[in-house]
Amino acid sequence: MSIHIVALGNEGDGFPEDNRQSGLIWTYLGRSALVSETESSLLLNSDASSIAYPVFTEYQACVFGNVRLVVHDCPVWGIFDSDWYTSRNLIVGADIIVIKYSVNDKSSFQEVKDSYIPVIKRTLNHCSVPVIISAVGIRQNEELPCTCPLCTSDRGNCVTSSEGIQLAKELGATYLELHSLNDFYVGKYFGGVLEYFMIQTLNQKSSEKMKKRKKSSKCHGVRPPQLEQPEKMPVLKGEASHYNSDLHNLLFCCQCVDVVFYTEDLKEVVEAHKIVLCSVSSVFMLLFNVKSPADIQDSTVIRTAQDLFAVNSETTFPVTSQGPPCNPPVRVIVKDSLFCSCLSDILHFIYSGAFQWEELEEDVKKKLKDPSDVLGVIEKVKCILKTPGKMNCLKNCRSYQAKRPLWLYNTSLRFFFNTPMLADVIFKIQGSTVPAHRAVLVARCKVMAAMFNGNYLEANSVLVPVYGISKETFLSFLEYLYTDSCCPASILQAMSLLICAEMYQVSRLQHICELYIITQLQSMPSRELASTSLSVVGLLKKAKFHNSDCLSTWLLHFIATNYLIFSQKPDFQDLSAEERSFVEMHRWPSNIYLKQLAEYRKYVHSRKCRCIVM
């Protein structure tokens, strides 16, 4: 890329003819830090009949590192008279025009203004070229140069500032006054303006070059194909947890009851489940021998258990409900009559998660009219649950429970997971035994609720065999029932857990496993997908077989989106005709794009064409 500058006029004031070494252009080229490798040559008038004298001087240099700069310095205006063709071509081909004159040569300025400036104006009407007018020198009739545009003190022999400004307006030029050809006026003042126009010229040429290149590519070349975005993957929505309602409903269904509360006169009050009560309070752990007094460091727990309850194993109690086989319910006598009258509401509060303190207070107030009795019962509940706060301040209870999970059992029931404590059923799987609790299983799984309460062999058996599932998968399944959460170790384990959840019809666990599989597959980079031994087609087959419609649909889209990877795997042939048709229809990239890409590559690498970008 190059920049062409044409400098017109003689800024010398009585200098000899060979004055190029002291002129404005030569001074700038010699002092500017941007200019390097400057060369000059004298070009003569093409008219052989005239006297041979230098019509203009041509300078060649480099600016901005590698941009070629060509300057034609024409001190003689007579070129417009003797060689109009050359002078016109110089102006038309110029990127920047510099007009310079001496402020002390009024006659020459007037001649240029009257005879040659109109010619330049007509020529510039057909192109847009920046023009710089440089008035060089100090006016001789004053000590200091006058910069006032209205000054008329030097109108006689010197070119005034107002005349120079008027000339600049006529040409739409930038007007500069250079009082001396030193570093400041030439390097910083004149050079700064000239270099600004150089940069503007380079930007304009680069823009035009890119436009021509794009236009040439559109008109004569083959455009590269545009790769469309892959189809959006189906969105799987998770199922909301119903852990709270599952355990709360257990209180009303009266299944797997192993605790019955009585009044002191042996009237049955309410039935409950030891596993739920022990999961929220050390008082019940002590009462049902899960913990011994030696294990309890807090004396208030022991005192609360002794003051409120008494376990009686006599057979004189009227029993209306039966627990697990060979294990009759534990009979608990409630010593406090006020507490006993509100026990059903208190158990409702505990089974609901032990955080609805306002509702508990309202329920207790309906049965106890005396406010002091109400506060006494609330205080006993707080002692059972070990909740901090004064007797008359439920706000402390609410703030304390707000900092804890809304449902206590999802963490406290973990304490009883895969432990023999209070276990009333044992699963036999792969030669090992896994203890569990019927109440939790019945509350959380409808299949097990039917199995343990219907006319099935498991309903009257403590040892229950499990087939078709590995021990690790079944333990993960039980862990979800106890804690409402699971974390598979791999995609294959998640698929095994999904199959187990489908077998026992636990839909939320199925959705969790589906989301886990999808998340893990989406996080795999293409290189890992290509090298992994995991069969995504195999996952698709299992998902369809076990009625996981959401996952199977997602996997089909995933295979189609990564068509180039999975189409090279051997198990791709295992897809059914319907599945293959779906994948081919939604494949990415599409067949049309691949054909266009092949044509474009053939065009780029052909001998008749050269890649524009590269």
From TrEMBL:
Biased composition (Basic residues): 210-221
CDD domains membership: BACK_RHOBTB3 (cd18532), BTB1_POZ_RHOBTB3 (cd18357), BTB2_POZ_RHOBTB3 (cd18360)
Top-level taxon of the source organism: Eukaryota
Domain BTB, chain residue ranges per copy: 257-359, 423-484
GO molecular function: ATP binding; ATP hydrolysis activity; GTP binding; GTPase activity; small GTPase binding
Annotated spans, Disordered: 208-230
Stored Pfam families: BTB, Ras
UniProt cross-references to SUPFAM superfamilies, sorted A to Z: P-loop containing nucleoside triphosphate hydrolases (SSF52540), POZ domain (SSF54695)
Listed GO CC annotations: cytosol
A Gene Ontology BP annotation from the UniProt entry: male gonad development
InterPro entries membership: BTB/POZ_dom, P-loop_NTPase, SKP1/BTB/POZ_sf, Small_GTPase
Keywords, alphabetical: Nucleotide-binding
PANTHER family membership: SPECKLE-TYPE POZ PROTEIN
Protein's UniProt name: Rho related BTB domain containing 3
Species this chain originates from: Sarcophilus harrisii
Lineage: Eukaryota, Metazoa, Chordata, Craniata, Vertebrata
